[in-house]
Amino acid sequence: MGQTLARVEMEIAFARMLERLPGLALACAPEELAFRDSVVYGVHALPVTWSGEGA
């Protein structure tokens, strides 16, 4: 149950963050992201840029 709740929380948090900061964008091509190969799923780093819009 904890893992499911954490995923829902992150989905909501990222959606709200992108709504509030529309100038936030991925700083590389999605296929360039390196994913972790372990029990915890995710990326090693998430490079972003921000144009300052919506601040």
Could you characterize the architecture of this molecule?
It is built from one helix and two strands. It is α+β, with helices and mostly antiparallel strands and about 55 residues long. Strands 1-2 form a two-stranded antiparallel sheet.
Describe the SSE topology.
Layout: H1 2-20, E1 24-26, E2 48-50
Antiparallel strand pairs: 1-2
Throw out a few tags for this protein:
55 residues, alpha+beta, two-stranded antiparallel ribbon, 1 helix, 2 strands, flat
What do the pLDDT scores average to? 88
Encode the helix/strand succession as letters: HEE
**Shape, per Cα inertia axes:** flat
Number of strands: 2
Regions with pLDDT < 50 over 5+ consecutive residues?
none
Tell me the β content: 5-15%
Helix content: 25-40%
Largest sheet: 2 strands, antiparallel
Query: What is the rounded distance between the termini?
Result: 35 Å
- Separate helix tally: 1
User: Structural class of the secondary elements?
Assistant: alpha+beta
The strands making up the biggest β-sheet line up spatially as 1-2
CA radius of gyration is: 13 Å
In short:
This protein has 55 residues and is α+β, with helices and mostly antiparallel strands. It has one helix at residues 2-20; strands at 24-26, 48-50. The model has no long low-confidence stretch (mean pLDDT 88).
